[in-house]
Amino acid sequence: MKQTTAPRTFRVKSFGCQMNVYDGERMGEMLSARGIVPAPEGEEADLVVLNTCHIREKAAEKVYSDIGRLTKAGRAAGKEPLIAVAGCVAQAEGEEIMARSPAVSMVVGPQAYHRLPEMLDRAVQGERATDTDMPAIAKFAALPERRTSPPAAFLTVQEGCDKFCTYCVVPYTRGAEISRPYSDLVTEAHKLVDGGAKEITLLGQNVSAWSGEDAKGRAVGLAGLIRDLAEIDGLARIRYTTSHPADMDDDLIAAHGEIDKLMPFLHLPVQAGSDRVLKAMNRSHTAESYLKLLDRFRAARPDLALSGDFIVGFPGETEAEFEETVALVDAVGYAQAFSFKYSPRPGTPAATMDGQVAKEVMDDRLQRLQSALNRDQLAFNRARSGQRCQVLVERRGKRAGQWLGKSPWLQSVWFEADCQIGDLVEVELGEAGPNSLEGRVLAPARA
Ligand code: SAH
Ligand code: SF4
Ligand code: F3S
């Protein structure tokens, strides 16, 4: 690789989960702190960070097509960008990326991206470098302070996963479960609020496994952290995602009934409705234990909106077992959900299991599952119409005077008002579609 001039502009492209979005924002802040500015819309950047996701094959393949596109566009413009590959594909396939794509000069894993500036200096000198070390927590301490935040901000509190579901790469790409210290999180939450955040979503691959010691040295879990963050003036809303059914404790359930700032929304993936499939997935819960858990959450917070993740076509899944998933969906009535075709991932136990399901069968099952989920999502939205609630304004709509925000139940709400991003406005929910609702503004409530 040849020597090049130091980049003036950058672009970070994040794929995958919200934690990648958080990481992407932090990498952007690091580059900005070095005087590199975000590339203007529509312009090629001097430095492109592809912050990748390895969860399914399609997601992972994207990185190679993106590298190809960037190199081609760069050649046409007479200057190829510096390319860094970050995120979970970097962690899983770092060496392969370096071998396959000479245009890539930096490969940096999700636990090592605080070293990106250093790697960049070397890349400018023409050196290629890979860093996929997994030092626990070092990254957060090494990141620059945050100055401005969006109204709905993310805060990573926990990372990694020890659950080893048999289909999943996350325990390998993100490493073992670690909790960030309580005091760091309280400090970062205050900074986010000072920078303009009204809502904070606490993030973790397994966020309800977070544990720490509070300011008085007492052991606290996620509910304790939420209780303390709820004391921050100016913070109006708290959410958390993603949880595993095995780590939901009584305190967290109670918190949903007691803390007004904790929004009535719970994303609790179940994956499948058949106990045999759940066992083969190593999920450590049954369909019944999951449903009972949801009952307890709903008893604490009756208007709770539920969300889940589903996989169809796990190896060995029969038609009857798939129908158990649909029956579970019918029983729950989700407000929203994510559903996927099983994708065999290299190195995971499920990839070599007998009974891999044919693509056409998976297509058919996914379509049937999604029509049940879409039906329930529309029903949930319609059931809210006529209700009053606050909407956090997140961005402008397509038409002049139109705005888009989120309801407490994480629904997208469109409305016309004289307001600005970050306002909390009081609306009456009107006509409901599958993906959004219209709102009529009752009063702007400048928070
Ligand atoms: N820690 C979270 C998120 C994991 S990844 C959790 O446990 O819920 C998000 C979702 O991707 C998973 O819930 C699962 O539904 C899906 N997923 C993970 N691995 C997959 C695979 N190999 N094929 C298809 N979907 C997968
Ligand atoms: Fe993956 Fe399971 Fe961990 Fe979620 S709980 S990240 S699905 S191994
Ligand atoms: Fe993807 Fe890694 Fe998140 S694999 S879903 S980016 S943890």
From TrEMBL:
Cofactor stoichiometry and binding remark: Binds 2 [4Fe-4S] clusters. One cluster is coordinated with 3 cysteines and an exchangeable S-adenosyl-L-methionine.
Domain Radical SAM core: 147-379
Transmembrane segments: none
Domain named TRAM: residues: 382-443
Reactions the enzyme catalyzes: N(6)-dimethylallyladenosine(37) in tRNA + (sulfur carrier)-SH + AH2 + 2 S-adenosyl-L-methionine = 2-methylsulfanyl-N(6)-dimethylallyladenosine(37) in tRNA + (sulfur carrier)-H + 5'-deoxyadenosine + L-methionine + A + S-adenosyl-L-homocysteine + 2 H(+)
Any GO CC annotation of this UniProt entry: cytosol
Main location: cytoplasm
InterPro entries per UniProt: Elp3/MiaA/NifB-like_rSAM, Methylthiotransferase, Methylthiotransferase_CS, Methylthiotransferase_N, Methylthiotransferase_N_sf, MiaB_methiolase, rSAM, rSAM_horseshoe
MF annotations from Gene Ontology: 4 iron, 4 sulfur cluster binding; metal ion binding; tRNA-2-methylthio-N(6)-dimethylallyladenosine(37) synthase activity
Positions contributing to [4Fe-4S] cluster 2 binding: C161, C165, C168
Pfam families: Radical_SAM, TRAM, UPF0004
SUPFAM superfamilies to which the protein is assigned, alphabetical: Radical SAM enzymes
Keywords tagged on the record: 4Fe-4S, Cytoplasm, Iron, Iron-sulfur, Metal-binding, S-adenosyl-L-methionine, Transferase, tRNA processing
PROSITE patterns to which the protein is assigned, alphabetical: MTTASE_N (PS51449), MTTASE_RADICAL (PS01278), RADICAL_SAM (PS51918), TRAM (PS50926)
Nucleotidyltransferase keyword on record: no
Amino acids binding [4Fe-4S] cluster 1: C17, C53, C88
EC number: 2.8.4.3
Cofactor(s) required for function per UniProt: [4Fe-4S] cluster
Compartment(s) of residence: Cytoplasm
Residue ranges constituting the MTTase N-terminal domain according to the UniProt record: 8-125
Sequence similarity: Belongs to the methylthiotransferase family. MiaB subfamily.
Function: Catalyzes the methylthiolation of N6-(dimethylallyl)adenosine (i(6)A), leading to the formation of 2-methylthio-N6-(dimethylallyl)adenosine (ms(2)i(6)A) at position 37 in tRNAs that read codons beginning with uridine.
Complex formation: Monomer.
Name of the protein described by the UniProt record: tRNA-2-methylthio-N(6)-dimethylallyladenosine synthase
